[in-house]
């Protein structure tokens, strides 16, 4: 049975069940069957779906041109602690009715930040204790926690990269509390999103010094958490810009280079987001391939952007081709390293009913489930893998293998080129690869 507190917020909606693709029930899964085994694992084990506290329970539909349109009941208490408890009650009711195992949060998603650091610490401790009770009742787990070091005006010039040491120290204090909360709630990972770790203008920015500060800061955070017994992964979430003109965690390749430069590569992995990949002029599959190639494919934020808008719209995922291509990389990489699939997505401003929150998550989970099944069939039943291998077959034997094994000199390459003369073109068969994706969808 779904967990319901003293007050039921989502009245008339029961547990969401799998009914299959022929079901007409809008409050049922058509593709997501948590018990279905795909590529040797249950869907629930592959995905580790998580509900995002900030969009699902804190977002109210505001945009740059107007205030929120969603007036949910858990937002109405005026006392910060009572409001936080009401939000937690609603959150755990929703999560359990969805049949999802995980949630994730920013520190001040859980409870409103106070006017002082000391009071904020007290508030956070109060709500963490309350949520521990909700976890005990429901069995819902924490996929990861993080700190919001970007919304408060004090972070207008960054947190760990701020030119004012006192702001950097305040960020350190806040992240220490967020790490403590994550560990108290048995969080499996911790995320850093450098929302304002970057610059607005190079005229007043010392990039090298700011990067050095960020590298040192992340190392200190890691060392603190490890000293307290935290065994999980640390994730960095790439994003190229917005709110800053340029952010230091621009894309997967940038973050991989940064982690290696500052000796963080053994503890940190990447939390990748579909919409952020779009903003970096990449596909999500590209971002995942880069991370996987370096053993850093940690976790995913599930959403999509509007392909006609150049900003972070955080819509729920429904592009089956895009997600199928991502799931090809997901399966080939052996899944995620520690993380899961977090719905960093929000219902639209003109979606104002409580059941809209259910429809959005059901659709997103079904999209991922269908994409996983499709990707597995492509890998196991189509010529896809054979065609990819054939493209590189010249490296499997002879001089090509000698090259990969490091047995050739540069002079050897010259001699081979001289002997071969002009070469015939070898087609990449791109259209055929694309047709295979469409066929199996």
From TrEMBL:
Primary localization class, coarse: cytoplasm
Listed EC numbers: 5.3.1.5
Active site location: 106, 109
Protein name: Xylose isomerase
UniProt cofactor note: Binds 2 magnesium ions per subunit.
MF term (GO), any: magnesium ion binding
GO biological process: D-xylose metabolic process
Cofactor: Mg(2+)
Binding site for Mg(2+) 2: 273, 276, 312, 314
Family the entry assigns: Belongs to the xylose isomerase family.
GO cellular component: cytoplasm
Keyword list, A-Z: Carbohydrate metabolism, Cytoplasm, Isomerase, Magnesium, Metal-binding, Xylose metabolism
Record gene name: xylA
Compartment annotation: Cytoplasm
Keyword check for Nucleotide-binding: no
Catalysed reactions, semicolon-separated: alpha-D-xylose = alpha-D-xylulofuranose
Source organism of this protein record: Pseudozobellia thermophila
Subunit structure comment from the entry: Homotetramer.
Binding annotation for Mg(2+) 1: 237, 273, 301, 344
PROSITE patterns given in the database record: XYLOSE_ISOMERASE (PS51415)
């Amino acid at each position: 049975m779904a967990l319901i507190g003293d007050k039921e917020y989502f009245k008339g909606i029961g547990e969401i069940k799998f009914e299959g693709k022929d079901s007409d029930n809008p409050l049922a899964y058509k593709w997501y069957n948590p018990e279905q085994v795909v590529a040797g694992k249950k869907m629930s084990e592959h995905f580790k779906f998580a509900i995002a506290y900030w969009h699902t329970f804190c977002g109210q539909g505001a945009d740059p041109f107007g205030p929120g349109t969603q007036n949910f009941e858990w937002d109405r208490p005026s006392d910060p602690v009572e409001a936080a408890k009401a939000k937690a009650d609603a959150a755990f009711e929703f999560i359990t009715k969805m049949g999802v195992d995980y949630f994730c949060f920013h520190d001040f998603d859980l409870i409103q930040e106070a006017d002082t650091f000391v009071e904020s610490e007290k508030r956070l401790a109060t709500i963490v204790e309350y949520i521990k009770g909700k976890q005990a009742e429901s069995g819902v787990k924490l996929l990861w926690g993080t700190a919001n070091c970007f919304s408060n005006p004090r972070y207008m010039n960054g947190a760990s990269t701020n030119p004012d040491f006192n702001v950097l120290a305040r960020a350190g204090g806040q992240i220490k509390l967020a790490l403590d909360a994550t560990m108290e709630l048995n969080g499996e990972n911790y995320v850093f999103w450098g929302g304002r770790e970057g610059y607005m203008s190079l005229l007043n920015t010392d990039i090298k010094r700011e990067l050095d500060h960020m590298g040192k800061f992340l190392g200190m955070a890691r060392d603190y958490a490890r000293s307290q017994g935290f065994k999980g992964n640390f994730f960095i979430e790439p994003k190229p810009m917005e709110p800053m003109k340029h952010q230091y965690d621009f894309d997967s390749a940038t973050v991989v280079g940064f982690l290696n430069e500052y000796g963080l590569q053994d503890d940190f992995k990447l939390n990748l987001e579909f919409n952020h990949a779009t903003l970096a002029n990449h596909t999500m599959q590209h971002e995942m391939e880069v991370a996987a190639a370096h053993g850093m494919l940690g976790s995913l934020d599930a959403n999509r952007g509007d392909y006609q808008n150049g900003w972070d719209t955080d819509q729920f995922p429904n592009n089956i081709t895009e997600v199928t291509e991502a799931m090809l990389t997901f399966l080939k990489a052996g899944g995620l390293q520690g993380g899961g699939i977090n719905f960093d997505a929000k219902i639209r401003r003109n979606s104002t009913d409580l059941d809209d929150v259910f429809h959005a998550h059901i659709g997103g989970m079904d999209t991922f489930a269908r994409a996983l099944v499709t990707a597995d069939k492509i890998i196991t039943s189509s010529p896809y893998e054979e065609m990819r291998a054939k493209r590189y077959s010249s490296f499997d034997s002879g001089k090509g293998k000698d090259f990969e094994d490091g047995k050739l000199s540069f002079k050897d390459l010259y001699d081979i080129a001289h002997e071969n003369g002009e070469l015939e073109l070898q087609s990449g068969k791109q259209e055929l690869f694309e047709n295979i994706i469409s066929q199996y969808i």
